[in-house]
Structures are given as C-alpha cells and as structure tokens.
Amino acid sequence: MLDLISKNDFMPIEELRALQLGKLQKLVAYEYERVALFRRRCDEKGVKPRDIVTLKDIAKLPFMMKSDLRDEYPLGLTASPMKDIVRFHCSSGTTGKPICIPNTKGDIEVWSEAVARCLAMYGITEDDVLQVTYGYGLFTGGLGLHYGGEKRGCAVLPIGGGNTEKQLMLMRDLGVTAIACTPSYFLRIMDVARQQGIDFRRDTKLKHGIFGAEPWTDEMREKIQDITGIKAHDIYGLTEISGPGVAGSCGKSNGLHIWEDHYYPEIIDPETLEPLPDGEEGELVFTTLDRFGTPMVRYRTRDLTRLYPEMCACGRTSRVMARIKARSDDMLIIHGVNLFPSQVEAALLSVPEVEPHYQIVITPTDTLDILEIKVEIKHEAFSDNVREVEALRKRVFDAVKNITGLGAKITLVEPLSLPRSEGKIKRVIDNRV
Ligand code: DLL
Predict the structure, then answer these.
(1) Which of 198, 258, 313, 396 has the fewest CB neighbours in a 10 Å radius?
(2) Residue 114 has pLDDT above 50, yes or no
(3) What is the pLDDT of residues 182-199, one digit of tens each?
(4) Is 287 in the pocket of ligand 1 (CB under 6 A)?
(5) pLDDT digits (tens, 9 = 90+) for 276-292
(6) Residue 335's pLDDT is what?
(7) Rounded to the nearest 10 degrees, what angle do helices 105-122 and 140-152 cross at?
(8) Given strand 409-413, what is the order of strands in its sheet?
C-alpha cells in the first residue's frame, strides 16, 4: 500500500501541473497584496497577478535574491501577521546582515512533510532510530530533520553537532539506524570511529546517512558507502525556501526529486536571466507554492544544476535535478580558469593514498596567483622515504591537472592535521579577497 506521506510523489503529471498553476496564481495574488517590494517590482514590469494564466507566465514575474532579504531585514518580506508566525529561522551567510525567515504553522507543516517524504523515499520507516547531528537553532538542518523524522514516526535522537565520541557511544547504545549530518562531519565521525577501533558494519546498526547542506561528490558518496556499508542519501534545501527536504535522492537516478507540488523549480541562464529548457545547466530558481510566512517568488538560489528531461525510473513524477556540484558564487577563477572545489575533491578521491580531507589556498603574488592544495596522506601511506612521498605528490598533481587543467602546488600533510568541521566545512581560503 502506498504510504500516505508519499501520495503526491506519484501524481499524474497533468494533475501536478494543474495543481501548481492553481497554487501559483493564489500565491502571486497574496504576495502582491501583502509585500510592498514585490508589488513595486511587478508594477515596474507592468505585470499583474491576473497575467499568470499558464505556468510559463511565471517568467513575466520579477526575481528575488538574497540581497532583497538582507535589504528588507528583518521583516520586510514577511507576508503574515505576527500572530500567525510560530518560528524564525535565520542564516548568516558569509557576509553582511543575516536573513530572517518567519514561518507560519502551515509552513512548518509543509516543510516537515517534505522532509518525511524524503525519509520515506530513502526507505526509512517508523522502525528506524534517527540521530540528528545537524545544528539545532537558527540553522534549519536540526529542527528540519527533527520534525520530518517525527512525522515519519522515527525515534529521533536530537543530539546536534559536536562531541563525536558521545555521538558514537549513543549510536551504538541506542541502535541508531540512520544519521543526518553534513558529509564533512560524517568524515570526522568516521575518523574518530577508526581511532576507537569501531567498525560500522560490525559494531553499529547504521544503515542510512542523510547528507546535505554542502556540495559533495559521487566519489565521496562511494567512499563513505564502501567504508561503512551504509547507504548515503542526498538531501537538499535552503533556508530561504524552507530548509532541508526541498529535494532528495531516490537512488534510481543520480539526482534529487524536487517536491514540485510545494516548490516550483526553474533553471535560468545566470547571465541573461532567461529560462532554460529541461536538460540545460544553469541557476536553480524556486517559487514556494505553499508558504505564507515568507513566500518566495522566483528566488535565485545561486546553485548550479539542471533538471533531467526524462522521467525517473522510480515512477515518481516530480522532476529530478542533478546533484548540486557548485554554487555560482563558489567558483574560483585562477589564472583565468574556472575552478570548483568539487573538481578538486573528485581528483583527490581518485588517488587511493590520500584522505578526502583537503584545503584549497590561493595566495596572490606580484605575478601569478598561487593555487595550493593541502591534502592529508592516509596513515598506511605515510612514509619518511623522500622518493615515495615525491612520487605520491606527483600522482596527486597529475590527478588535479587532469580534471581541472591547473598546475597546483600540492602539499601533503600528516593524517588528522587539517581542521575538521561539525557543520558546513570551509574548504577554500582565498587570500586575494
Ligand atoms: O543548508 C539546509 C539544509 C540542511 C540542507 C541540512 C540539507 C541538510 P542553508 O544554510 O540556507 O540551508 O544553505 C543552503 O547549501 O543553496 C546549497 O548551496 C547548499 N546545499 C544544501 N544542501 C545541499 C546538497 C541548508 N545536498 C545552501 N548538495 C544551498 C549540495 C547543498 N549543496
């Protein structure tokens, strides 16, 4: 029998499009009436809510950006009266003022359902024990997985980030079967487990990892699965649109289903801002169809991906987006070449003697900027033999050059010497900015 949580996953496509259109028309009228910035921008473009007759008409509407949330901080984009708001989430980002997202009870309900649908898709049931290691508080990771986990009926362990030894102790003592954390924090948990002689297959009941909040590669997923025997699932989302659970991986296609009945996706060319057809890569844009505290119309995420044109073999009708490899604002330009940290990660993971712990450091000089990649050598590969180390350095150099086209300075460092993270990791130190 089809799980009630998942009933909309398989909605016939015409029904889904009709549902989206009805919700979009309602949302645009609501936003136009209540949010001054949106109304002003629509008026400037000469577009009125009644002009939204088909889903394609969404392209007539203005975009929203993170800078709008900052400029209108704290409550300028809030569309509901405070009596209807039940929770705030904020995101600090790397620069400037935070953004603030007030949520209504209904917003939290829709978001929890979206997370629960991801969990159901991963094969997680009420028999599972879910350790939530994402941060609780203003960040959406902890409370998002918590409410979604409870909605799914899991036994939730709300431990939050940090204290890795205790994480491992409770994981074993409580028979945890699923863990939700950033992939970089799971690497840290794997390090500590290895130091303590804990074998995931032998000593724990862990079966699922729910990883997201930062880009991670297919190579990293395979490595985690190989070493621990768990199934590594991808979960995507962002504070502005709700939090984790906007999309999740089904395992049949190498991508993530977007819960389109709640979050309407578009891909645009980030230069011309024109919509791109399914299949083409560009910037992901979302319209929240069911959010009334802080609705977002055509919100530019800065995440780069594409929507697969074909239906997924799993039978779900919602579109699949390719895994997010990068954000447009994470792109580094070095010696005129575009470089994404995920390319460096993929290159490093192709060399078995190094760990997936690395840092990219860019240092300006009077002539060319220096690109340095610091990477940890595996315990087993650690050696005092200068020739062996030099040969390994050359292999890493070649792997990076092959994938990125750039000649980098490779610095091999001792195991466990680079900083670890309990949340999102900072992999790039750009001394030019
Ligand atoms: O990171 C929400 C979240 C929490 C998602 C827990 C998944 C799990 P923000 O802090 O607002 O919200 O950051 C959102 O993180 O625009 C992406 O650039 C990146 N991101 C999130 N999930 C993934 C993922 C949360 N699965 C920003 N793969 C997004 C790649 C991701 N990048």
Answers:
(1) 313
(2) yes
(3) 999 999 999 999 999 999
(4) no
(5) 999 999 999 999 999 99
(6) 84
(7) 70
(8) 409-413, 370-377, 354-363, 428-430
Which residues in 294-319 are b (16+ Cβ under 10 Å) and which e? bbbbbbbbbbbbbbbeeebeeebbbb
- How many CA within 13 A on the CB side of residue 248? 29
Residue 22 CA to ligand 1 center (angstroms) comes to 28
Strand partners, 326: 304
140: closest CA among 263, 294, 244? 244
Mean pLDDT of 41-64: 98
What is the rounded average pLDDT of the residues 341-366? 94
| First-last CA distance in the chain | 56
* Residues in contact with 179: Cβ distance below 8 Å, sequence separation at least 6, in sequence order: 130, 131, 133, 171, 186, 189, 206, 208, 209, 210
| CA pair distance 318, 31, nearest whole angstrom | 25
Q: Which two tokens stand for residue 296?
A: 């977002």
**H or E segment and range at residue 41:** helix 36-45
d(CA 242, CA 89): 9
Position 328 scores a pLDDT of 85
Closest CA to 224 of 349, 323, 133, 118: 349
Which residue is associated with the tokens 């918590």?
Answer: 146
User: Is residue 340 in contact with ligand 1, taking CB distance under 6 Å?
Assistant: no
239 lines ligand 1 (CB under 6 A): yes
Question: What are the tokens at 367?
Answer: 């002539």
The two structure tokens encoding residue 203: 């000593």
Please name the residue whose Cα sits nearest to atom 13 of ligand 1. 238
